[in-house]
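[stage:ingest] chain + small molecule (zinc ion)
[stage:ingest] validated
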Amino acid sequence: MTRARLILLNAALGPLDYRVPAGMSVEPGSIVVAPLGPRPMIGVVWEAERFPDVPSVGDNRLRPLLGVLDAPPLPAPLRRLIEWTAAYYLAPHAAVLRMALASMSALEGGKTVIEYRPSGALPERLTAQRAQALERIGERQGLVRELAAIGDVSDAVIRGLIKQGALEAVEVSTDLPFPRPDPDHAAISLSPGQEAAAQRLVEQVRSGESHTVLLDGVTGSGKTEVYFEAIAEALKQDRQTLVLLPEIALTEPFLDRFTARFGCAPVPWHSGLKQSDRRRAWRAIAEGEAGVVVGARSALFLPYRKLGLIVVDEAHETSFKQEEGVRYHARDVAVMRGLMESCPVVLASATPAIETRHQVELGRYEEIKLPSRYGGAELPEIIGVDLTHDPPDRGRWLAPPLVQAMRETLARGEQSLLFLNRRGYAPLTLCRHCGYRFQCPNCSAWMVEHRLTRRLACHHCGHEVPTPDSCPECHESDALVACGPGVERIADEVKALFPDARTAIVTSDTLWSPARAAAFVRDVAGGAVDIIVGTQLVTKGYHFPELTLVGVVDADLGLDGGDLRASERTYQQIVQVSGRAGRGEKPGRVFIQTRAPDAPVMRALLEGDDAAFYAAETASRRSANAPPFGRFAAIIVSDTDAALARETARRIGAAGPRQEGLEIYGPAEAPLAVLRGRHRWRLLVHARRSIDLQAIVRDWLSAIDWKSSTRVSVDVDPYSF
Ligand code: ADP
Ligand code: ZN
Ligand code: ZN
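[stage:predict] done
[stage:export] tokens:
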């Protein structure tokens, strides 16, 4: 190659050509450094014919490449995946490529990095800030920037600690090998149903063909053990496996189970990794030495050298939908990656998405069912609590039947779980005297009171203020009232009802790191907790044999708002949280508090009629031509200037294509009309399946200009609206 067409890591640029200097050798996929203006920039060499429209420039006018990085080239299937993702989600190639390269620092530099750790020396006269940072850092080790983040201080404070000798430098190799999971380490005997399912997956792995399987097993049916057999087969074939989990809080228990089965942990990948770990994992993945990778959705774009299996666990989870930057759905991209890599993809779920079921009906995905729980455990008994007949006491949220069941459960020494999908103490705080309501200054959202931290917080932008003692408007003291419940308030009610019970609150505020999540699992499994009060975080994956009672505090909460997926999400969440009850030898009970026991979702839940729910939901989607039958794309226009945002949205709307089978709704104010100080307007495009929605939106938007302060982003297959 004497010239190379590159995608550079700059989203504003299209592909560009460079000259390959004599003596340098590159191929498609090579990761190179190229000059861009006065600065060097990372890019990847692409097959020139994939981008035929790049204007041709004479060889003598091309700038030469500066160097090739010492890293394996990105494999062709990954390059095809990057192209597909960019085209499907209407994102710049560079933005997708950035996910594959994970961070440029994962590639640059040598095979060691310098990290710092507490030296144990006792320097004199530490400032209070430095002392506090040191305490927060504890035993940890990392780059200056990473320690600053842990200590919640600036880099300068960390450098001060280094100078004083409180932190010492250590050289960390990023080239250490990972241990290899052993497929025969501790094989377990499967139930006949599991065995049949596992055999089928093993065949798929052996065949090395692309094929998507829905592993549809009720909660507690032992899906993990089943796909572990497929992983074992991939290991025997010397192919890599990627396991995607929806939540980093679930990684820790997964690692334990994996280690018990395979003798060592898999390679983890998530946003919380230290840079040296990230660099080490990236290389091991690219070189094919990482046998099994477990990670968050971002692990999908890594350069696996020989992928043999992809598992998406809890595949229905909404957290697989990325809502910033490249707005992709990891479940769908996983299926596409399986196609590119010629390997099977397993979607495991007790409550598959309507879209996934539809693919099964069309015969595109194979379905493997595990209809009963492992070890003969029964699914829990479901009891509806009609709040209009059995209301809680005034200012309380737990109705008498649920309280009674909690009392019985406590008396038996068993555990209860209360589920309410709302963080904090109360979703709204107002002044009883003048009616003032606390609103976020940056968003059209109420500030949520958090009593544990004594702060009011916006759950959309993170803005926080200390909870004031008096009303900022009328200055009346003791006039602020909390309206509605959050998990902290439910926990207070539990403490008032059962003062001797040990209560744990589980939300992203309390379980923000894998270590905290691991501690929580240990506490519950070890019997140190009687009652758990939690948000959707507790609905997922956990297995606690002594947990026999689940209370759904407000089953109707997710149903308002007219969201397309409101019923489906409510159904999935309640089935999942119910699935935490009675997983061991003791039978479980679930109390569902609702004001609408006759709503179709509630009826299906109370009668345990899964098929009825799916049939009704599918029919209603079909009649609305909603996904999976029709398709949507949302165009979101935002600007700090309200008038400019509205004006641009109107212009985009006015230029909208008119076509049979395509409708454009709006522009209208987005459901969250102001977010982080930006005013947001939204257009919703609704199209028949047969229409090339992406091509239409691309052509439409490329004909319009907007001010540089305005942001226009497209969400293809938007998740909630
Ligand atoms: P699911 O993911 O389907 O809800 P899990 O995979 O968590 O279910 O399995 C439920 C419980 O049953 C777990 O504690 C798991 O270890 C146990 N289990 C499942 N299959 C087996 C097996 N074949 N042998 C022993 N224990 C099993
Ligand atoms: Zn007031
Ligand atoms: Zn806000």
